[in-house]
From TrEMBL:
One of its GO terms (cellular component) is membrane. InterPro entries: FxsA. This is FxsA family protein. The chain crosses the membrane at residues 26-43, 73-97. NCBIfam families: PRK11463.1-2. The keyword GTP-binding does not apply. It holds the Pfam family FxsA. It comes from Sediminihaliea albiluteola. Keywords: Membrane, Transmembrane, Transmembrane helix.
């Protein structure tokens, strides 16, 4: 794994050089700039959506692990798009495709149990008051 991480920048550089040879240097630079901007937009949109879900969780809705994993995966895809190169961009596209991302998650993490959702009615704010005493004393 370490070897792949050390080799990745050189492979990315080789793919960009090959793109420049096949098209033009200006096209390769435009590609790098375009994927960088796309990565920024993905991260911005993902961040705003995550804050919206956190606000909803404050109002009584349950945050599932699936939502958190999806948010983290989309954030990772945005970061991969920021890195110049075609290999990380291909990996980002794979991560951005929802069904494929979930299959990869099930492969690595196994099947996740369903999140418990309480049957609480969020529209009625009824407080039940009462008293109690311990019977076992």
């Amino acid at each position: 794994m370490r070897f792949i991480l050390l080799l990745l920048p050189w492979l990315e550089l080789a793919t960009l050089i090959q793109l420049g040879i096949e098209t033009s240097a200006l096209t390769a630079l435009a590609y790098v700039f375009g994927t960088f901007v796309l990565g920024l937009l993905v991260i911005q949109r993902q961040g705003m959506g995550m804050f919206q879900r956190l606000r909803e969780a404050q109002h009584g809705q349950v945050l599932g692990t699936r939502l958190l994993v999806d948010d983290m995966a989309v954030g990772l895809a945005g970061l991969l798009l920021l890195v110049p190169g075609m290999i990380t961009d291909f990996a980002a596209v794979i991560v951005l495709i929802g069904p494929l991302r979930r299959k990869i998650q099930r492969f690595f993490a196994g099947e996740q149990p369903e999140v418990y959702r309480s049957e609480r009615d969020s529209d009625s704010h009824v407080t039940i008051e009462g008293s109690y005493r311990r019977v076992d004393d």
